[in-house]
Design goal:
alpha+beta, 3 domains, 4-stranded antiparallel beta sheet, PAPs-like, metal ion binding
Length: 201
């Protein structure tokens, strides 16, 4: 299990304390992973926790963060356990508004959210209690896995044309941290080495 959180300054030794009770976070582990990438305003801190019991609820608290109340995560079941479980998959997190997608779209776009429609974040929050694992949603309460998409490659999403001013934009409009999967590669820590993968891919 890897715990990740962001800070506005680099931490020399990111540390997470954890335990099986919110009042007894008696085990602490540290790492030297506190990194940033071009144009990012924060540092990503990642600490791996080993030696956890299977199918167990743990409480944890990153040190040097704004959090004062412990978060929770539940470890995976033993290999071979046939108990059914649920997975939520978020294809697009939504980029605008406090809770994700907005209720309006630009000229020529289709399918805006209606007044009673839930965006991706709202839908997943509503289902959270019934979900064991999340793919792509960043959360403090459930294990997650990320997958790269079009916005991780570059910010222009294949090119943009301003028809009013007859200007076609390309990847040159993107800040360095928004190109070549830079943010994706530096912000997340998937168990690639343990599973035979490469970085977060």
């Amino acid at each position: 299990m890897t715990v990740s959180w962001n800070t506005y300054s680099q931490l020399p030794h990111p540390t997470v304390c954890f335990g099986r009770s919110p009042k007894h976070l008696s085990r602490c582990v540290s790492s030297n992973v506190s990194i940033t990438c071009p144009t990012s305003t924060t540092y990503s801190n990642d600490v791996s926790i080993a030696g956890l019991e299977a199918d167990t609820l743990y409480y944890y608290l990153p040190q040097h963060s704004n959090a004062t109340t412990p978060y929770t995560f539940k470890t995976s079941r033993q290999a071979g356990d046939q108990t059914p479980y649920t997975v939520a998959v978020a294809i697009d997190m939504g980029l605008m508004g406090a809770m994700g997608l907005t209720t309006s779209v630009g000229k020529g776009a289709h399918n805006p959210l209606g007044p009673n429609d839930n965006n991706t974040i709202q839908s997943l929050l509503a289902q959270e209690v019934n979900t064991d694992f999340l793919w792509h949603l960043i959360t403090a309460h459930k294990p997650y896995m990320v997958g790269p998409g079009n916005h991780e490659s570059n910010c222009d999403n294949g090119g943009t044309t301003d028809s009013v001013h007859t200007i076609t934009y390309n990847v040159g409009i993107c800040m360095p941290g928004q190109t070549n999967f830079t943010g994706f590669r530096n912000h997340f820590r998937m168990p690639s080495a343990q599973s035979g993968g490469v970085e977060n891919f």
